[in-house]
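Project standup — Tuesday

K.O.: blocked on the structure for the chain from last sprint. Re-posting the sequence here as requested.
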Amino acid sequence: MSAAAPSMLWLGPDKPDDGLTPELVGSKAHGLWRMGRLGLRIPPAFALPTTLCALLDQDPERAGARIAEGLRAGVERLEAAAGRRLG
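H.V.: unblocked you, prediction finished:
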């Protein structure tokens, strides 16, 4: 996983990331992303990329930091989309 690889991918509904694949975000997240791209209403959602799993085997400490970074970014985006703070 390169340093430029994202730690969080936004599924939508507003301005979803482009080019998400089932291999990158998992089948359920990909299905939700596709529904949003087709114009169906979906809730605000994010996914952590599956590439973080491979990083867990290679460098658990770095993977933990990237997972925490992705969760922070995802929750911040959810809060912005909902207009509320979580937790």
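K.O.: great, moving the ticket to review. The first helix runs from residue 22 to 25. The beta strands are 9-12, 45-47.
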